[in-house]
Amino acid sequence: MPSREPAALDRINAVTANFFFWQGLRWVPLGVALLVVSWSHGPSSPVPKSWESPLLIATMAVALAASAVIGRWYARSFGRVRGIPGQHARRTRTKWLVVYPALLVALLVDGIAKPSVLVSGITLAAAIEAYRRSTGGGRAHYIIASIAFAALTLAPTLGLTTPGAGAVNLLIGVLGATYTIGGLLDHRELTRVFPDVDDTDTPHSAIAGVGSSR
After folding, report:
1. What is the DSSP letter of 41?
2. How far apart are CA 131 and CA 68, in angstroms?
3. What's the start-to-end Cα distance of the chain, in Å?
4. 110 contacts 122 by C-beta, under 8 angstroms
5. What's the pTM value of the predicted model, to 2 decimals?
6. Does residue 19 lie in a domain region?
7. What pLDDT digit, counting tens, does each position of 153-203 carry?
8. What's the farthest any 2 CA atoms get from each other in the chain?
9. Is residue 58 included in any domain, yes or no?
10. Which of 66, 109, 114, 180 is close enough to 164 for a disulfide, judged by CB 3.0 to 4.6 Å?
11. CA-CA distance, 45 to 186, in Å (whole number)?
12. How many domains does the chain have?
């Protein structure tokens, strides 16, 4: 592909090395599921308490199944990328040893201690920015999401929600919106990097032509 500018090739390499995370439509069902869960646990929700857990399980199961189907569509339409063993080992260690534990602790603090600030907000803001940088950069919508979650930290202080369960439920709702909107924008970014791919199944994918970068 000699006609490609170096910057364009670098962008392709960044995307193919993190291809799974750029399959934005996969995140939309999960985002919708989180929105449903947040709605069902809201103070004005008509959902009976006895239905909340079954609705949570059913909604997440449907979302995961839909995400898997969409993943197969991406594989047929864009191709597959073979990973380079160990390429993302540092990111994986950081995710499991630092990011996820920090998010869990923040949620426990918000849910149990019920502080006047939403600790999970600033924690998620940092996690989203780290996610953006470690999965190929770009995608300015995640910068906006990080700012939104950082601002959400002050929601209980400003009286926009009650500390504890109410604040955590608000966080889940905003996270659902982030998954939904961010997923759609991720897909748009992917189609900009590979503009020649039709939204139909094809044995000849743009990514297969570029080659594996993971």
Report:
1. T
2. 21
3. 19
4. no
5. 0.84
6. yes
7. 999 999 999 999 999 999 999 999 999 999 999 999 999 988 865 554 444
8. 62
9. yes
10. 114
11. 31
12. 1
